[in-house]
Amino acid sequence: IFNVSFAGTNSEGKEVFLRDIWPTREEIQAVEREFVIPTMFKEVYEKIESVNERWNSLVAPSDKLYPWDTNSTYIKSPPFFDGLTMKLQPPQSIHEAYVLLNLGDSVTTDHISPAGNIARNSSAARYLTSRGLSARDYNSYGSRRGNDAVMARGTFANIRLFNKFLNKQAPKTIHLPTEETMDVFDAAERYIQSGVPLVILAGKEYGSGSSRDWAAKGPFLQGIKAVVAESYERIHRSNLVGMGVIPLEYLAGDSAESLGLSGRERYTILIPELLTPRMLVDVKLDTGKTFQVRMRFDTDVELAYFHHGGILNYMIRKMSEN
């Protein structure tokens, strides 16, 4: 742009480009030293407490801990730290997990955690109705991201989610033990109540699209222990690690189709105590079939997060140590 942006002609009729008039770094620094001085910032900071009367007149609690309003449907104390102890637990294998969703390629973060309006026939809508709200007050998932009860119910609630179990687009799945079709959250709740772990099968580019923390938090709250996919979007894979959800990747050339996986099998994923980045682990099915996948903990730091049950637990423990 410096070489092609034409600024005009000079008094001699020669063409002048942006590169000819743009100040050098030395010239900019000279102006900064002369005019951008510390007293400018000190004057602003000294007036902070008096310059905005409306802001200063706001009444706010002085407690060190936030006083959660149990009546609020927008901000709710999250369950991420429930049962947290200072003692680390050794890695646990995943035994006899059911598949909650059997997905294909290019499942986006909007498929996983939509930000749009809350549908009237959704699990989230039923929850909000139980809290005394009418349909016109449901608002959007994006506006209620401070309420884990809404966001967990909104996970995989996108009407364009294609689930191979149903062979169509719908925010639903099949609860395999009963063969009932229901909202994804409702099926996950049944599995959780039965004490059964869950996994997701997916194809290429799982978690593509915009980065959304709830696309990892939501599956965690639904009891998802691992995702098995052909590939991951970089940031979403990192977010799964941060929530303690194991990102597993098929080996090159493998896929659910090539391995003959229907998603109706029970999955046992053998996690050894001694873990290394990107190591291979065994997956055993109740059909007798076995295959290997790669654990996508790519660094020692990510392994540390996993040992702590996620980055949130990791940070709390580190802060407690200090």
From TrEMBL:
Its cofactor is [4Fe-4S] cluster. GO terms for molecular function: 4 iron, 4 sulfur cluster binding; iron-responsive element binding; lyase activity; metal ion binding. It comes from the Eukaryota. Keywords: 4Fe-4S, Iron, Iron-sulfur, Lyase, Metal-binding. SUPFAM superfamilies: Aconitase iron-sulfur domain, LeuD/IlvD-like. Residues 125-251 form the Aconitase A/isopropylmalate dehydratase small subunit swivel domain. Pfam families: Aconitase_C (PF00694). Belongs to the aconitase/IPM isomerase family. This is Cytoplasmic aconitate hydratase-like. The gene is LOC104961321.
